Amino acid sequence: MGWVIDTFFGVTNDQVTIQLSPDEALVLFDWLSRTDDQGGLDPLTEDHAERVALSSLAATLEDQVIDTFDPAYTQRVRTARLRLTRDLP
After folding, report:
1. Residue 58 · residue 29 · CB < 8 Å
2. Are the C-beta atoms of residues 26 and 80 closer than 8 Å to each other?
3. How many helices (H) and strands (E) does the chain have?
4. In sequence order, what DSSP letters do the residues of 15-58 get, joined into one string?
5. Using one digit for the tens of pLDDT, what is the confidence trace for 33-87?
6. Is the pTM here over 0.70, yes or no?
7. Would you kindly state where each structural domain of the chain is located, as residue ranges?
8. Contact between 18 and 8 (Cβ < 8 Å)
9. Torsion angle of alpha carbons 70, 22, 29, 66, nearest 10°?
10. Residue 14's beta-bridge partner residues?
């Protein structure tokens, strides 16, 4: 678990790759989408560019996580949360 950030500087495409576990990706996507749907990102951001970056992150995560319309989605999020926090004090 944890974050691994690798930066690749190419001639035409600069890109940052963040590696997340499937549980981290699912929980982060769920939080971002819920917070954005409720208008909750506005007080968390100082500049419109931050909202753009968070929206881009959410879209990228959405492509990687399970179908949000899957009937088991809510249970899978709960299970992922439990796995992420089970070893915390």
Report:
1. yes
2. yes
3. 3, 2
4. EEEEE--HHHHHHHHHHHHHHHHTTTTGGG-SSHHHHHHHHHHH
5. 888 777 777 788 889 889 888 888 998 899 888 777 889 999 999 999 999 999 7
6. yes
7. 20-85
8. no
9. -20
10. 9
